[in-house]
Amino acid sequence: MTAHQHNHSHDHGTHGHAHGLGNERRVMLAMWLTGGFMVVEALGGIFSGSLALIADAGHMLTDTGALMLAWMATRFARRPADVAHSYGYARAEILAAFANGIVMIGVVLWIFFEAVGRIMEPAPVLGGPMLVIAAAGLAVNIVAFTLLHGGENNLNMRGAALHVLGDMLGSVAAIVAAIVILFTGYTIADPILSVLVALLILRSAIAITKESAHILMEGTPAGTDGRTIADDLMENVEGLADVHHVHAWSLGSNRAVATLHAQLKPEANAGTALDAIKTRLAEKFGIGHATVQIEPEECPDHNDGGRRD
Question: Pairing relation of β-strands 5-8 and 240-252?
Answer without folding.
Answer: unpaired
